[in-house]
Amino acid sequence: MLKAALNRAYQAGRVPSDHAWRRVKPFPKVDEAVVRYLTADEARRLVNACPPEFRRLVQAAILTGCRYSELARLTCADYNPDSSTLAIRLAKGRIRHVVLTDDANRCFASWAAWKAGSERVFLRGSGEAWGKSHQLRPLDIASRVAKISPPVTFHVLRHTHGSHLAMQGVPFGVIARQLGHADTRMTEKHYAHLAPNYVAETIRAKFPNLGITENDNVLPLRTGARGS
After folding, report:
1. Which DSSP category does 142 fall into?
2. Which residues of the chain have a pLDDT value below 70?
3. Distance (Å) of CA 178 to CA 43, 45, 74, 171
4. How far apart are CA 166 and CA 34, in angstroms?
5. pLDDT (tens digit, 9 = 90+) per residue, 154-169?
């Protein structure tokens, strides 16, 4: 994380050179994929264990793969029912469009109903906006009630969305765009192992016939019952 922050500072012209930390090697196994995600049963148990206002936030995270900070500042105007998308507003005026499934679209239509465009989609029980770290305690409590250990984080909810897409054979480029990854490298790092069927089918479909094998019509006999 520190190296990423330093690279960001260098790219923004805040420091004159990145030479000092380019020589620093990563810690062992730091590039191993994070594999934790919720099964469908765990997701249902977690959602049911949440209080009403917080439940919506958890549902949205699982259904969209959005980060906690992105959902916390989401306004009703960012939800487009015609295209079934969310406009996630990023730094420097950039926007990422998140596609909503039918279930997610029905949820957001209900959550945004009768609200002004400037109003937040998600608010705490007190009517205040969700702030930094407000999600930690209720998510920890809900995890204990749902008997999920170790406790769930919003990163796990985001990873759950991407993992289930990968297991359904969704192309990595599509997952990367949905989650807001800059390219598919991060997506493949985390989700390639969850999509063996997609990887295998793609390789078998795309690798050309090089003509380097012989066509042999002789097939092995099946082993049947003795005396047949």
Report:
1. H
2. 27-35, 198-199, 215-228
3. 20, 25, 16, 11
4. 14
5. 999 999 999 999 988 8
Q: Which residue has the tokens 């390789």?
A: 203
Q: In degrees rounded to 5, what are phi and psi of residue 160?
A: -60, -45
* Strand-by-strand arrangement of the 85-89 sheet: 79-80, 85-89, 95-99
Q: Where are the beta strands (DSSP E) in 84-128?
A: 85-89, 95-99
Task: Identify the pLDDT of residue 201.
Answer: 76
**53-100 pLDDT per residue, tens:** 999 999 999 999 999 999 999 999 999 999 999 999 987 778 999 999
What is the residue extent of each domain of the chain? 40-202
- Cβ contact 118:77 at 8 Å: yes
- Topology classification of domain 40-202: hpI Integrase; Chain A (1.10.443)
Can you list the alpha helix ranges (DSSP code H) found in the chain? 2-11, 19-22, 40-49, 52-64, 68-72, 102-112, 136-145, 154-167, 172-179, 184-191, 196-206
Q: Give me the chain's average pLDDT, please.
A: 88
Over the Cα atoms of the chain, what is R_g? 23
Q: Count the Cβ atoms, other than its own, within 10 Å of residue 26.
A: 8
